[in-house]
Amino acid sequence: xxxxxxxxxxxxxxxxxxxxxxxxxxxxxxxxxxxxxxxxxxxxxxxxxxxxxxxxxxxxxxxxxxxxxxxxxxxxxxxxxxxxxxxxxxxxxxxxxxxxxxxxxxxxxxxxxxxxxxxxxxxxxxxxxxxxxxxxxxxxxxxxxxxxxxxxxxxxxxxxxxxxxxxxxxxxxxxxxxxxxxxxxxxxxxxxxxxxxxxxxxxxxxxxxxxxxxxxxxxxxxxxxxxxxxxxxxxxxxxxxxxxxxxxxxxxxxxxxxxxxxxxxxxxxxxxxxxxxxxxxxxxxxxxxxxxxxxxxxxxxxxxx
Length: 305
Ligand SMILES: [Zn+2]
Fold this sequence. Notes:
This protein has helices at 20-40, 54-62, 67-75, 95-111, 131-137, 187-201, 227-236, 246-251, 279-288; strands at 4-8, 119-121, 142-145, 157-161, 167-172, 212-216, 241-243, 260-262. By secondary structure, it is an alpha/beta fold. It has a single domain, classed as Glycoside hydrolase 38, N terminal domain (7-stranded beta/alpha barrel), CATH 3.20.110.
């Protein structure tokens, strides 16, 4: 069966069905636990902080005393940082906001110890056709995405081209960014879960040697400090399983993916993508919970996804 690379992460809807401050109250202990776990266990080699730096900035406002510790982990490649400032909904902000979110994110990430150079796009409700152009303009060669990918893509990768001809390679997550969410805490159940994910992912992978990048986390999910022990047990059971970063995942992919997909991604077979779906419901929810501000870090309407 395919090797499994666990990309441990949490996905952060910064302000959505709860106000910003309520989510911040959950963010701080979540990142505390990430830092504590990494400090106490070298086997917990990497954690992916959702592709957006804004949550690190939010955290450091509450925990300025942990800035050096966090920077050291970013510099060591154990904690991902960026590349985006914020994961914006691409159809709700201007093109300028998308470009600046990436540009600002890369600079802020480098200042923190080294920005991730993978265009992580986990939960946007479809993608603008210029995204490969925006990424490649900054020197990024890979994207990782889910919603919007057309049904003609029947494997875990493709080449995505913008109207100007520029392109990136894409790691497609056919089961979303939460395929490995809520990992089982008992050793036997963990092994069963890995085997299940191997089985359902196998048709999407090239052959039995291609690693399955298993996104291990979900919306606002805390890390599981017991994972290194569970992984050791799974290895003893014969599974090839390890923790990996997205940089490591793309390093083991083909230089040029196929098939070629051109322009906007609005395919809705695998997951909902209606470009306006987040506007009305989210705004109504915000009004209901008393949150009316639509001002964010990268533009006048920088709704995060
Ligand atoms: Zn989201």
